[in-house]
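Students often ask why we bother encoding 3D structure as a string. The short answer is that it lets us treat folding as translation between two languages. Here is a chain of 206 residues written in the first language.
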Amino acid sequence: MHDVTAIVFGLASQSPRQEAGMATVAPDQKSVFLMREESGLLFMPSSILNIMTATFFKGKAPTEDLKRRTTEVVLANPWLACRLRKQVDPSDKKKKVAMVYDAQPKLEAIVADHYREYSVADVQGDSTLSDIDVSQTYEVICKAACKSDAMLVAGSKCVGKNEPQFRVTVVPSADGERFTLLVSISHVIADGYTYYEILNLLSLNA
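And here it is in the second language, the structure alphabet:
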């Protein structure tokens, strides 16, 4: 397994982000303003702003490995652990939405905020979770995934609140013989290209 690397985040086709003034955040935090195009996305519904994929696997989920890998990816890319806050832009003294995150996220916080795993018992007792399975149709899987913990609170509803913008969710099948890996990220902080870069980093064989 190779080391996890950091990647450039944001809309690849746009200009670089402007760092927010450090005086507005704690010494161990970083603050980066959203670009104009990203700020405009805040007014879209969460169902549109969530970039989410479902990948299906045979066998029992390697939950400890997936948890460790998720932690490694966030540590290498701490902006994934951001929250959206309004900050004063020192260039024009106006309040703007920024990504605020710890420069070195705590391990327990990464697991609590960005990693979820359901048990076979959870799935057996929840008809919605049991629908997140390769045996179901695309429409059924999408509907069930949007009702699970994989669905992020995105857009204007999460500004100023403790709402993660990235999450990895593991859902086993009811018989425990296969599992689904759901990876979600808010389109406000990443575009499709960046999303797939992160998804590739999560591979245990990356």
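Translate back mentally: The beta strands are 29-33, 50-58, 83-89, 94-102, 115-117, 166-172, 178-186. Keep this in mind for the problem set.
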